[in-house]
Design a protein that fits this description.
- The protein has about 100 residues and is of the alpha/beta class.
- The protein has helices at about 5-15, 35-50, 65-75, 85-95; strands at about 25-30, 55-60, 75-80.
- A 3-stranded parallel beta sheet has the order 1-2-3, with helices on both faces.
- Strand 1, helix 2 and strand 2 form a beta-alpha-beta unit.
- Helix 1 crosses helix 2 (about 35-50).
- The chain is globular and about 35 Å long.
């Protein structure tokens, strides 16, 4: 489930791994709403602290609202609707880290 507790736990695990050089959040929300997922992602990152480059791909229901939530949050994240673009950016950021 894409709730705040789950996202916070996931970001704690990922952020604590020294082998992780960038984080790629890939969400294709058909039934799940991108705005709800975006709120959970923002809360999770803010709870843990953004220490690694972040790429977020959102596509699906309420994607525009989800993107706006992330933009308004102040998170330093690369946003896209396209999986390939997001994956390439995550690799580029990981190599630069």
């Amino acid at each position: 489930a894409a709730n705040v507790e789950a996202m916070t736990a996931a970001f704690k695990i990922i952020s604590g791994d020294p082998n992780v050089k960038s984080i790629f959040v890939n969400i294709f929300g058909g039934i799940a709403r991108c705005d709800h997922i975006a709120e959970a992602v923002v809360a999770g990152v803010k709870a843990v602290g953004a220490s690694k480059p972040l790429v977020i791909r959102l596509e699906g229901t309420n994607v525009e609202k989800g993107m706006q939530i992330i933009k308004d949050s102040g998170l330093d994240a690369f946003l896209t609707n396209d999986f390939t673009t997001g994956a390439k950016e995550a690799v580029k950021l990981a190599k630069a880290a």
